[in-house]
Amino acid sequence: MKKSQSSKEKILRVALKEFAAYGFGGARVERIARQAGVNKAMIFYYYSSKQNLYRIIIKNSLLELIPKIQEAIAVSKSPEQFFENLPKVYIQYFVKNQAVMRMIGFELIQDPGNITSVVRDIFTNIPESPPDLLKNKISIWYQKGLISEPDPVHLILNIIPLCIFSILGKPMVEAILDIKIKNNIDFIDKRINSISNLLKKGMLK
Amino acid sequence: MKKSQSSKEKILRVALKEFAAYGFGGARVERIARQAGVNKAMIFYYYSSKQNLYRIIIKNSLLELIPKIQEAIAVSKSPEQFFENLPKVYIQYFVKNQAVMRMIGFELIQDPGNITSVVRDIFTNIPESPPDLLKNKISIWYQKGLISEPDPVHLILNIIPLCIFSILGKPMVEAILDIKIKNNIDFIDKRINSISNLLKKGMLK
DNA sequence: ACCTATATTAACCAGACAGTTAAACTAACT
DNA sequence: AGTTAGTTTAACTGTCTGGTTAATATAGGT
């Protein structure tokens, strides 16, 4: 029973790319099967439905990302460090896992209720919940007069968008300004830097 | 020939919502027809294909947004004003036209090449191109030592994401922090404020 | 060798899909 | 009343889709 394991996992890997490329509606089960080198029926044998396969992939992806964020929060002893660590972790993860980012993006646009329920589900079953950790840090930092934004909602909404859209929005900005960004590694480095600087100058007191 | 006009336009209005809700692949031509109170064949009669209908809607939407941005840039005599005006224009437009935002989001994720070609197409046929206006302002402001970010790419990528994701990411942040934002008008006001403050503190010298 | 549980396949299905067609309707103009 | 051009419709088509099924293959345990 070794080949089965590889088939089961290969379906996940291939399906992630398929969903990211075409969205749920546009994704084709048969294309996933073909690219995974597996009979179409195997997908239903292992994952019972297209919807279910989709949900499992989203959950897996989030479970992979969360510990990285958890650590970035934990190691940040000051808001300066926090504003440097978090964008770095987010951007580097999403650059390496663009398919994940695209799938999450799709979900947020199409059916926010679905992904948010997955998120809630994950966080209620985690011992040291990263959101709680974050809330505590923010409130302590604000009380100490270190940061200017006391509301965790707006603090988060001032960070995450900058990271995700940096990658997603790149082609758009290239089109708007009518330029071509050649060196992607340089661009990403510059992006992380620009975001960290903006956050430090903009939200530290 | 009066009813035809209203049918033709109603298809556009309904299709915008359909595409925003389900993405291109998930959108159903027949559902558009039914909701527009029109025979399905009418959609092909007026717009020849689903793809073409999609492109026309995207283009129309951008053509509606661009003048607003153009004006926000033009009236901003200082970077302070710019960092206040642009987020306000973006967020207020996207709050009122969430379907447009979702469609653009879909495109950016699924087929960036498509929407970017539409953008290029629009901007090359506009006399006072807003990107050029923006590039000039930024370079002048930087030379005068008023702003800290000389690169228009990163300046834009520090602004637009904050606006778009503020609306799109709201349910996600609610799920992460396990809260419910009740008053949406207050939230949007606070969001515009928080972004303007971040940009002013973070990017002015 | 036989049993059993898991893995895999080809062939199939009913419904849905984008797109077509040809005929009929409408209303303005002559 | 007849012509014309733009609208609208019902009925259709060929293809594709997610999902099913029943038969078969595999391999480990007895």
Give structural notes.
The structure is a homodimer of 205-residue chains. Chain A has helices spanning 3-26, 29-36, 40-47, 50-75, 79-96, 98-110, 112-124, 130-143, 152-157, 160-168, 170-177, 184-203. By secondary structure, chain A is an all-alpha fold. In chain A, helix 1 runs antiparallel to helix 2 (29-36) and helix 4 crosses helix 7 (112-124). The interface between A and B is large, with 63 and 63 residues. The first copy, chain A, binds a DNA duplex (30 and 30 nucleotides) through residues 1, 3-4, 7, 28-30, 38-42, 44-45, 49-50.
Chart the SSEs and their pairings.
Two copies of one chain form a homodimer.
Chain A: H1 3-26, H2 29-36, H3 40-47, H4 50-75, H5 79-96, H6 98-110, H7 112-124, H8 130-143, H9 152-157, H10 160-168, H11 170-177, H12 184-203
Helix pairs in contact in A: 1-2, 1-4, 1-6, 2-3, 4-5, 4-7, 5-6, 5-10, 5-12, 6-7, 10-12
Chain A binds a DNA duplex (30 and 30 nucleotides) through helix 1 and helix 3.
